[in-house]
Amino acid sequence: MKQSKTLKSMIRILFLILLAVCTTACGKKEKRPVLKMATEATFPPYEYYANGKICGIDVDIVRTIADHLGYDLQVIDMKFDAVITAVRTAKADIAASGITVTADRKKMIDFTLPYVQAYQLIIVPVDSKIKSKDDLHGKRIGVQQGTTGDLFVADNYKKSKLNRFDNGALAIAALRNNKIDAVVLDADPAKIHVRTYPKEIKVLNEPLTGEEYAFAIAKHNKKLRIDINRELKRMLDDGTINEIIAKHKNAGSSSAPAEVKSGFFAKIKAAFVLNFVKDKRYMYLVDGFWITIIMAFFAVLLGTILGFIVAVIRSTHDMTGKLKICNALCHLYLTVIRGTPVVVQLLIIYFVIFNNLDVNKVLVGIIAFGINSGAYVAEIIRSGIMSIDKGQMEAGRSLGLSYKKVMLFVILPQAFKNVLPALGNEFIVLLKETSVAGYIALQDLTKGGDIIRSQTYDAFMPLIAVALIYLAVVVLFTKLLGILEKGLKKNE
Ligand code: GLN
Questions:
Q1: Fold for the domain defined by 282-490
Q2: Parallel, antiparallel, or unpaired for β 116-118 and 161-165?
Q3: For position 229, what pLDDT does the model report?
Q4: How far is the CA of 192 from the centre of ligand 1 (A)?
Q5: d(CA 225, CA 66)
Q6: Ligand 1 atom at shortest distance from the alpha carbon of 146
Q7: How far apart, in whole angstroms, are the C-alpha atoms of residue 56 and residue 245?
Q8: Residue 118 pairs with which residues in a beta bridge?
């Protein structure tokens, strides 16, 4: 009896071990390929941030499709006017961003089947004199850059002042602050924005356009389009799409700030909670901060190395007349880099040079800002080298040292010490310049603030927070630089 009991429990244990092995083996299943989706995530209910994650109708539809086709989904947030380019340049496989099918866009990419009917609406302050689309002539109108709303207003209201914003939420913020008279926006996000501030703004129930949303896929990616169309059709037929749409009916309304009536400090506190505490929004700033620091640090490293090389080539040429071709190349580099804005260089590197290559965006940032900074560092160091008395070189040479050795061990260390303040300054400039990284959808510190702003419709708190963080880093860095300079002086 006892024996059979032990046998039974042994079998049970064996079974459990077998089960555990099985499940871990299954858990270790092959990693699935990734489907990259480009979107602009301030377009509720189609795409919006909730609890730090991008969700929405488009995300759910594409995730369901990806799942069926055996992909893991990766969602990339960028400016709307970049989502189609991202697909064309292989930065993403699919663009899903409430994109309206238009003839011009069809020339660039292929569209899937349409999945939603849409139209543009006008949003105005509740007490506005604008009652219909005819009243828009000559007014200040806000739109989201690169959208069909933008095209519609540009084509139909030539005498109006067109204000193009990066996203609809920013246009709404401008409307609430009396910077513009009306906003033209896609109907669904328009209604959600208005729901957040029902006492301040309203929509005019007059559809301006008739549109259809579809997903964008690169022209060469026919197989993916066919696969997605098959899935889309099934989801349209069996009601899955309708279910997903219904699920996001209340999108964005959680962002609505609670009304605080009394007291200045109570208001500040409520705004602070809304902007940073609620939904752990401070994490956008924390994550963005590290990206900014990492990018600036490695870019300055790359810039210093490049700068040193260029400076040595240029001053060697100045002093000895040698290295003619290298000097000409360096000259070209300095002219081009110093003659063009860093944001244009960043975009060229990302979209043109790395065309058809999916590179890490932080790396792109480091390369772009590093190359840019190198040009300035080169001139700083060259001026440092030139400031060293000529006699030093002559003395070194007469002691029998080679040109290289004098340069490396006599001239450069002194030059470096002389230009340290200017180099520190360059790092400060660079750190702040990285704030344009959002153009290639990098979530740096500035972009982190932008995301918060687009969710809370509050410009003040996120902007001030971002400014204070940059300021703190710069002050700290200046202090460290001061200590380093003092140390170097002591050693003289
Ligand atoms: N439907 C509009 C367009 O395609 C706007 C889309 C958006 O802002 N995400 O232009």
A1: MetI-like fold (1.10.3720)
A2: unpaired
A3: 98
A4: 15
A5: 12
A6: 10
A7: 9
A8: 211
**pLDDT in the model for residue 359:** 85
Mutate to test the pocket of ligand 1, among 77, 78, 80, 213 (most ligand atoms within 8 A of CB): 80
36-115+214-256 and 282-490: identical CATH topology: no
What are 196's two structure tokens?
């957040």
Does ligand 1 come within 6 angstroms of the Cβ of 444?
no
Average pLDDT, consecutive stretches of 10 residues, N- to C-terminus, the chain (492 residues) = 52 51 48 94 93 93 97 94 91 97 95 98 97 96 94 94 90 90 97 91 96 97 97 97 93 56 82 90 95 96 96 91 94 97 95 84 96 96 91 90 90 89 92 93 90 80 96 95 84 68
Sorted by where each begins, the domain ranges of the chain are 1-30, 36-115+214-256, 117-211, 282-490
Distance CA 69, CA 180 (A): 45
Give the type of residue at 224.
L
150 CA: nearest ligand 1 atom: 10
Cα 40 to middle of ligand 1, angstroms: 9
The class that CATH gives domain 36-115+214-256 is alpha beta
- Report how far ligand 1's centroid is from the alpha carbon of 147 (Å): 5
CA-based nearest residue to 379, from 346, 434, 333, 435: 333
> In ligand 1, which atom is closest to the CA atom of 105?
4
43 Cα nearest atom in ligand 1: 9
Question: Which residue is closest in CA terms to ligand 1's atom 7?
Answer: 98
Q: Record the pTM.
A: 0.76
Question: From 3.40.190.10, 3.40.50.1400, 3.40.50.720, 3.90.76.10, which CATH number describes the 117-211 domain?
Answer: 3.40.190.10
Q: How many CB atoms lie within 10 A of CB 396?
A: 18
d(CA 346, ligand 1 centre) in Å: 25
For the Cβ of 166 lying below 6 angstroms from any atom of ligand 1, the answer is no
